[in-house]
Design a protein that fits this description.
The complex is a heterodimer of chains A (194) and B (441). With 194 residues, chain A is an all-alpha fold. Chain A has seven helices and no strands. The chains are: A mainly alpha (194), B mainly alpha (441).
Chain lengths: 194, 441
C-alpha cells in the first residue's frame, strides 16, 4: 500500500515537472515577443520572467534525480550486456546481482554525500542568483533522489533474487501502430486499387 | 599509469553489465578515495552542478517534442507523402521507406521507434507487393538511423554539452571553443540529406537490377493532399532550424517551443493523441530524459577526473610528439567509435569519448563542428550492426527474422553508410559549408 503511493507520487512528480518546465519556457518566450507588440505592451510589461531559466533548470534537476530512480524501476538504465549474456546462467545471475548491488552502493554513497552537503549548507544563507531561494532546498533533491534510487535498486535486486526477472524497457514502443496482417493487406489493396 | 588504471577499472565495471552511469560514477568514486589528492568536496559539488546548465535542458524538451509525434498516425502520413513522391520509381515502396524514415526519425528523434513505426506498416505492404522480406527489413533497419544526423538531434546536443567546458588549442596556438548546438544542427543538414540520397540510391539500384515492382504514379491531387497532411509534422524541423538561425530563440527555447508545437499538432490537428494519453507521454519522456541526464551527471564527474589527471593533455602531447597527422587520427577515431558502437548506445559513447577526442582533434587542426558530425555519423552506423545495434533488434522483432539473417540483409546499406562515413571524414567542407555560408562559423 505504502509502496503503491510512493510509486504514484514519483510518477506524478516527474510528469508534472517536465510539463511545468515546458510551459514555463514557452510562456517566457511568448512574453518576450508579446512585449514588443504595442497594444500588448501594457499587459505584459509588468510581468518579469527573468527567473524562468533558473526555475526551469532546477525543475529539470529535480526531475532528473527522481526520474533516475523511476528509471531503475522501469529498467531504462542500460549497460553493456554483451559479455554477461554469454556467461553460464548461474554465473550470469551472480554478475547481474553484483551490478544491482553496486548500483545500490553508489547511490547510497552519493545520497550520503548529498545529505552531508545539505547539513553544511543549511546554516549558511546561500541563495540562488535569480529567485533567491535557499540553496539547501534546491539541493535537497540529491539526497532524496539518490536514497530513493538506492531503494529502487534494492527492490529490483530483491525481486531478481526471488523471481529471476529484471524490469525491461522496450525502446521501440510506438503508440497507434497496427501490427496486423489485415491492415497491411488493406494498404496493399488500396495501392492496387488506384 | 593512472590513465590505464582509470580506463581499466571503467571497462571492467562496464563489462559486468551494470548501468553505464553507475560504472562511470563508481570509477570516479573509487579512484578518488584510493588514489588522488583531489578533495572529495569538489567532486560532491560537481554532482549537484554537473547538469545545472540551460543548454543541457534542450534534451528533455526535444525528447518530449519527439514523443508527442512518435505515433503510428504520424508515421502513416509520412509514408503516404513519401510514396506519393517517389513510389512510381524503381523500388517504389523501398524508396518511400527511406524518405519516410528520414522524415519520421528527424521528428521523433528516436531511431528504434522509427524502425517500428515505419517498418510495421511498410514491411507487410512491401511483402504483399512481392518484395523479398530481406530487402524491406534491410532498408528500414538502416534508414531508421537517419534521424540522429538530421536536426533536431539529441546526439549533437550531447556532443556540444560534453565538449562545452573544455579548452583546446589549435596548431597555431589559438584557443578554440567547441561547436555550439546551433552550428552542429546546421552542419548536419547537408550530410543528412546526402546520406538519405545515398541510401535511396542503393535501394533504387538493387530494385532496378532485380526488377522489383513499382507503384502507379500518384496524381497531383493525391500528392498535394499527402503533403498538406504531413507538413504539420515536418514544420517542426523548420521551426527549430529557422528559429535558431534567425535568432528568434536559443536552441533550448526552440526545443521548448517545439515541444508545445508538437503537443498542439498531436492533440488538435492530427488528433492522434487523446487528453488521457498525455500523462503517459509525459512520463515516458521524463523517464528517457532522466536516464540521459543521469549519464551526463556521471560523465561530467568522469571528465572532471580525467581533466584533473591531465589525461587529454597527455594524449594530445603524445599524438603530436609521435607525428600522427590528421588523416591517421581521424581514421583511428572512426575505428575507435565503430568498436565502441559494438558495446554501448550512442549517448554514452559521445559523453565518454568526446571530451577526450576534442582537444586532440583540435590540436591537429580538425574543426570541432566537423568532429561532431563525424561522431554522429559513427553513432548511426553503430545502430545498424550487431551485437548491440538497437535498430537491428527492433527490426528483427517486426520482421520476425533472426539477427544473423537480418545482418546479411542490411549489408548493402551498411556498406553505403561506411562509404558515406569515409566521405564525411575526409571532406570536411560537407559539414562546414552550410554553417559557414550562413555566417555561423
Amino acid at each position: 500500500m505504502f509502496l503503491r503511493i510512493l510509486d504514484r507520487l514519483e510518477e506524478i512528480l516527474i510528469a508534472s515537472l517536465i510539463a511545468g518546465a515546458t510551459l514555463l519556457i514557452f510562456v517566457a518566450v511568448v512574453q518576450r515577443y508579446a512585449v514588443g507588440v504595442p497594444f500588448l505592451y501594457d499587459i505584459f510589461y509588468d510581468i518579469n520572467l527573468t527567473w524562468a531559466q533558473e526555475l526551469c533548470i532546477y525543475m529539470f534537476v529535480w526531475m532528473a534525480k527522481f526520474g533516475a530512480a523511476y528509471g531503475v524501476r522501469t529498467g531504462i538504465h542500460v549497460g553493456v550486456d554483451v559479455l554477461v549474456n554469454m556467461l553460464r546462467p548461474a554465473i550470469r545471475n551472480k554478475v547481474i546481482m553484483f551490478g544491482l548491488l553496486a548500483g545500490a552502493f553508489f547511490t547510497f554513497v552519493v545520497g550520503s554525500m548529498g545529505a552531508k552537503f545539505i547539513v553544511e549548507l543549511y546554516p549558511t544563507d546561500q541563495v540562488s542568483p535569480d529567485m533567491e531561494m535557499p540553496r539547501w532546498i534546491i539541493f535537497l533533491c540529491v539526497p532524496l533522489g539518490s536514497y530513493l534510487m538506492c531503494f529502487r535498486f534494492l527492490q529490483v535486486a530483491w525481486s531478481f533474487w526471488r523471481t529471476g526477472e529484471l524490469p525491461h524497457h522496450d525502446p521501440g514502443h510506438v503508440e497507434g501502430v497496427v501490427e496486423s496482417p489485415s491492415a497491411a493487406r488493406d494498404l496493399a489493396a488500396e495501392e492496387r486499387g488506384r | 599509469m593512472n590513465s590505464a588504471l582509470i580506463f581499466g577499472l571503467l571497462i571492467a565495471l562496464m563489462l559486468t553489465g551494470m548501468p553505464i552511469s553507475i560504472a562511470l560514477g563508481l570509477t570516479v568514486l573509487s579512484f578518488l578515495y584510493v588514489m588522488t589528492t583531489v578533495p572529495i568536496e569538489a567532486v560532491a559539488l560537481k554532482l549537484f552542478t554537473g547538469i545545472e546548465s540551460f543548454e543541457i535542458m534542450a534534451i528533455p524538451f526535444f525528447i518530449l517534442a519527439g514523443n508527442f509525434l512518435t505515433h503510428g498516425g504520424v508515421a502513416r502520413r509520412m509514408i503516404r507523402f513519401a510514396s506519393s513522391m517517389v513510389g512510381h520509381w524503381y523500388g517504389g515502396l523501398g524508396l518511400a521507406a527511406v524518405l519516410a524514415c528520414a522524415m519520421f526519425a528527424a521528428i521523433s528523434g528516436s531511431s528504434p521507434a522509427t524502425v517500428v513505426a515505419i517498418g510495421s506498416i511498410l514491411l507487410p505492404a512491401m511483402v504483399a507487393q512481392g518484395y523479398p522480406k530481406r530487402f524491406g527489413a534491410g532498408v528500414i533497419a538502416t534508414s531508421g538511423a537517419l534521424g540522429i544526423l538530421i536536426p533536431p538531434s539529441i546526439v549533437m546536443v550531447l556532443f556540444a554539452v560534453a565538449t562545452g567546458g573544455s579548452v583546446a588549442v589549435d596548431p597555431e596556438g589559438k584557443r578554440v571553443l567547441s561547436a555550439s548546438v546551433a552550428q552542429l544542427f546546421m552542419a548536419g543538414v547537408i550530410p543528412g540529406l546526402m546520406l538519405a540520397a545515398m541510401l535511396g540510391g542503393t535501394t533504387f539500384y538493387r530494385a532496378w537490377k532485380n526488377d522489383y515492382p513499382r507503384m502507379t504514379r500518384a496524381t497531383w491531387g493525391e500528392a498535394i493532399k499527402a503533403f498538406r497532411d504531413s507538413i504539420w509534422g515536418l514544420a517542426l524541423i523548420i521551426l527549430v532550424l529557422g528559429g535558431i538561425y534567425s535568432g528568434l530563440f536559443t536552441p533550448t527555447e526552440a526545443a521548448a517551443v517545439s515541444a508545445v508545437y508538437a503537443f498542439v499538432i498531436a492533440v488538435f490537428v492530427y488528433r492522434d493523441l487523446n487528453w488521457s494519453d498525455i500523462p503517459k507521454v509525459l512520463l515516458s519522456s521524463a523517464n528517457m530524459s532522466a536516464m540521459i541526464l543521469y549519464i551526463i551527471t556521471n560523465a561530467v564527474l568522469f571528465s572532471f577526473l580525467m581533466t584533473s589527471e591531465q589525461i587529454p593533455q597527455a594524449i594530445t602531447a603524445w599524438v603530436t610528439g609521435a607525428g600522427i597527422g590528421q588523416l591517421e587520427f581521424l581514421l583511428f577515431v572512426n575505428i575507435l567509435l565503430l568498436v565502441a558502437g559494438n558495446f554501448m548506445e550512442p549517448s554514452s559513447i559521445v559523453l565518454i569519448t568526446a571530451p577526450i577526442l576534442f582537444p586532440v582533434a583540435v590540436g591537429l587542426g580538425v574543426n570541432p563542428v566537423h568532429l561532431g558530425i563525424l561522431m554522429t555519423v559513427n553513432m548511426e552506423v553503430g545502430l545498424c550492426h550487431p551485437p548491440v545495434g538497437l535498430n537491428l533488434y527492433v527490426a528483427s522483432g517486426i520482421a520476425k527474422m533472426g539477427i544473423t539473417e537480418l545482418t546479411i540483409a542490411t549489408w548493402p546499406w551498411l556498406v553505403t553508410m561506411l562509404v558515406f562515413l569515409a566521405i564525411v571524414t575526409y571532406v570536411p567542407e560537407l559539414s562546414l559549408w552550410l554553417p559557414r555560408v550562413l555566417g555561423m562559423l
